[in-house]
Amino acid sequence: MSIKEKLTGVFAPIVTPFVNQEIDYKKLKENIQKLNNSKLKGYLCLGSNGEFRSLTDEEAIKVIKTVAKSKSKDKTLLAGTGRESAWATIEFTKKVADFGVDFASVLTPHYFASKMTDEALIKFYTEVADKSPIPITIYCIPRSANGVLISPRAISVLAQHHNIVGIKDSSKEDIGNYVNAVPKGAEFYVLSGSINKFLDGLKKGAIGGVLSMANYLPDLCCEIQELFNDGKCEEAEKLSNRLCKINEKVSGNGGVAAVKVAMNFLGYYGMEPRLPLLPLKEDEIEEIKKVLKGEGLLS
Ligand SMILES: O=C(O)C(=O)C[C@H](O)C(=O)O
User: Fold this and answer.
1) pTM of this prediction?
2) CA of 66 to the centre of ligand 1 (A)
3) Which of 25, 32, 40, 166 has the fewest C-beta atoms under 10 angstroms from its C-beta?
4) Using CA atoms, how far apart are residues 103 and 81, in angstroms rounded to an integer?
């Protein structure tokens, strides 16, 4: 399968199910086994919804192994391996490369945000890509990365590296800026990092998305892309608007904890977040139940 085929479609940024602050690997495995029956293209583990920053390296490795072993053969696996330094990112990526990970997802370094110039980011990702045993994708999420926004100019340079194959755009910017920055013929693809820009991204040349609501409504998320591919733009628009509204009501304020509550209601094991993230309060949980019932998603 080509890189483009492996990256085309919807990915669930897999949550890490915590019970009393401990990872429940059995529940993680059961989530994957259930999602294997969906139309998802694959999974991203250790992303934002995976609460990757709250795991030890040892736990992160065990999560990757659990997902890699539980996923069906047709599913692509991305894993978040970004650390603050290029050195640590390379070391961790090398550690997990042989566990069945297809692509690394590397978050922009951001502790020294004011120093993350185009030059610094180009050097960082080039160094990581030069030494990574697996292809890498760039993860751009300024709201969680001290405002660091990798520029389209930097992407136009990095897209030419044979081992950098894409970007997950979770910024608030126009996703078309990245699509248009990719030099003709470069093997580099753009994925939307939010349901809110997913359909717009497809219209502008993105090839898929990593969508938190794909954890609990996988096939409805995939249906947007199916309708778009079939030229049914009006129906795609209608479904996209519906899912954006649900997403806003579910995880607009509650974030990962809310995604987990929606999963718990819809037959998955979201369980609870790990501190510092707090679980939702009773009234917030009830509100999500009401939204899902109102949408006919919960009886
Ligand atoms: O959890 C991640 O990592 C994501 O990519 C989620 C995505 O950014 C979203 O908010 O849907």
Assistant:
1) 0.97
2) 20
3) 25
4) 10
Q: What is the dihedral of CA 235, 238, 242, 245, to 10 degrees?
A: 150
- Note the ipTM here: 0.91
Ligand 1 proximal residues by C-beta, below 6 Å = 13, 44, 47-49, 168, 170, 193-194, 210-212
Per-residue pLDDT tens over the stretch 89-132: 999 999 999 999 999 999 999 999 999 999 999 999 999 999 99
3-state SS of the chain: helix, strand, coil percent to 5? 50, 15, 35
* Burial bucket for residue 261 (CB in 10 Å: 0-12, 13-18, 19+): buried
Q: How far is CA 296 from CA 3, 128, 274, 291, in A?
A: 37, 46, 30, 9
CA of 109 to the centre of ligand 1 (A): 17
Question: Of ligand 1's atoms, which has the minimum distance to the CA of residue 214?
Answer: 11
